[in-house]
Amino acid sequence: REGRDEGFEAGRVEARAEAERQMRTLVEAVSRGRRPQGIAPGSAAAELQRALEQGWAPRDAERQAALVEAVGRVSAFLRNAVGAPLAGAAPSADAEELRERIERALGAVKDLDFFTKEPVLDAETKDLSHLVQQVTREFAHDQGVGVRLSLDDKPVRARVNVTSLMDAFYLVLHNAARFGGAATVDVSVLVEGGEARIRVRDRGPGFSEEALRRAFDPFYSTAQDGLGLGLPHARRVVEGMGGRIALSNSLAGGGEVQIAFPAA
């Protein structure tokens, strides 16, 4: 019996070693993008290989589609926002018109440059109500879009970088105005569940299922002239400061964006 036990244990060790050898073969092949060789049919390694192969193709296709979409978005942006103003000047255009067209083109280039830079995320404790009031006033003045503001009756404090958060919040407002048909945007600031929260609701049709799934993907936009970088940038800023940002469709109608930070 003792010999049988020793043989059984030796068999287990050998089987474990073979399984580990197959898994190492699989890992090494996967890391080099190759199809593994010598994997025993029906083994766990073979099943993992099959799952990886089935998963690779869709992901590769999605990456390729995302790349095509990104190139298309940037090309269209440069063509419409930069090239069109410069090419559209008539031969008889005066200096004022030329200057205005050049400024529009340069402004578009600056917009693109803004999204390529890492946001500053150094944080300090601030009252979000005060920051939101500043941004909504500026936004309403710049865009001619009404904002209905609801503030908590006490300070709503969180640790944020003022400039980066104000930029991100402006982008969220701009998105709400665009997809809400320039109708009044509802904004609320409150403390809830131990969080300092900012909610932005538009008056549009709400987010589609695809938009809810992809809105934070860089270069995704349902607007033909959209660059698709506003919400991804806002997410990078908010999460970089320890907060979170989420999209939903409001029961009252329209799309809703919620930004939340731990209350300070």
Describe this structure in words.
With 264 residues, the protein is of the alpha+beta class. The protein is 56% helix and 16% strand. The chain is built from seven helices and seven strands. It has helices at residues 2-31, 44-87, 95-116, 128-143, 162-179, 209-214, 230-240, and strands at 124-127, 147-151, 157-160, 185-192, 195-201, 244-249, 255-262. The strands form two sheets. A five-stranded mixed beta sheet has the order 2-4-5-7-6. Helix 2 packs antiparallel against helix 3 and helix 4 (128-143) packs across helix 5 (162-179). The termini are far apart. The relative contact order is 0.10.
Distance between the termini: 69 Å
Write down how many β-strands occur, each being a DSSP E stretch of 2 or more residues.
7
Number of helices: 7
The oligomeric status of these chains comes to single chain
N-to-C SSE string, H for helix and E for strand: HHHEHEEHEEHHEE
What percent strand?
15-25%
Helix content: 55-70%
**Residue-averaged pLDDT, rounded?**
79
Rg, alpha carbons: 27 Å
Low-confidence stretches: none
Secondary-structure-based class equals alpha+beta
